[in-house]
Amino acid sequence: MRLTLAKLRDRLRERLAEEDLPWGVWLFMRALWEEDELTQRDLTIKVGMRQPTTVVAVRTMKRLGLVRLKRDAEDRRKVFIYLTDKGKRLRNKLLPDVDDLNNKVALRGFAEKETEELKRLLMKMYRNLSDESQGDIRR
Prior knowledge:
The protein is mainly alpha-helical. It has helices at 2-18, 26-34, 40-47, 51-63, 85-106, 112-130, and strands at residues 38-39, 67-71, 79-83.
């Protein structure tokens, strides 16, 4: 399982590199493509990262011309992050390729029933790992 995830990640990184998009901003861009104009705090929560990681990613995205920042007029502590046209265009380039990587490459040769079963099992694993009530793994 670890090797499969690593291979999938490598292939995605290769595609991102073709667009000069660092791996470290990928999840942040995905979140902004789903919902533009987020505060830095909301982006941190949506991506599930820590605040310092978000700060570095936002700086990188700004330097690359993918986002612009704007302080809230009423609450100067809030900084909103907006996709630039360049950031929006990347969505149309990358998301179809990522979809193809997942569905046409990684799942090539799988029957529809097998694909559905795999997704069901992976979601079950995700729920198991997300279940905080299961306690410490060092039992």
